[in-house]
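Side project, low priority. Logging it here so it doesn't get lost.
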Amino acid sequence: MRNKLTLLGIVALGVLPMALSAQEFPPSCNMCSSTYVPAEEIAEFLEVPQVDQQVRSLDIGKTNLQVAIAHRGRLEEPGGVAEHSLVTEVYYVISGSGTNVTGPDLVGSVPRPPTNRAVQTLNGPGHNAEAIRNGQTVELKAGDVLVIPAGTGHQFTRIDDHITYLMIRVDPDKVVPLLDEAGARQYLDDR
């Protein structure tokens, strides 16, 4: 009996992947085009004296996705804590280094007002806080990736010289307005 059950399990494991691969899965972004952002355009965004620059905000089907660039200068004292309630951020460090603390347990959390620039155009509703209780500290350097899920506070506590990072924002609730190439060009030209 035991051998029959083992054989049945092996057969089931072999059949299941074939059954899944035979199903039709419609694309979650039907007939969508890809988006290309040249390095020269990223460099233009880095010239704007603003820490966080939205490069694109795209509808990719079931979610929106933002591409942003951030550049922060030297920081000797801890900066403020930010939390984005609905948007996940992924940092890819291009250059520089810094210490970042993350965690969901915020001390002195205050909602960001709906008129806040970040709420309106970058990362949707969220909170500012005084500190993060029991946070996870990471030392970021060029080439590192940091994933900050929605609802997780994050704070730079030290930046030696600078840190520049590409940011991908995952926006499943589509709270951030779309920004295409023409909108990005208009933003750059108006600076």
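Brief comment: The chain has a mean pLDDT of 91.
Revisit when time allows.
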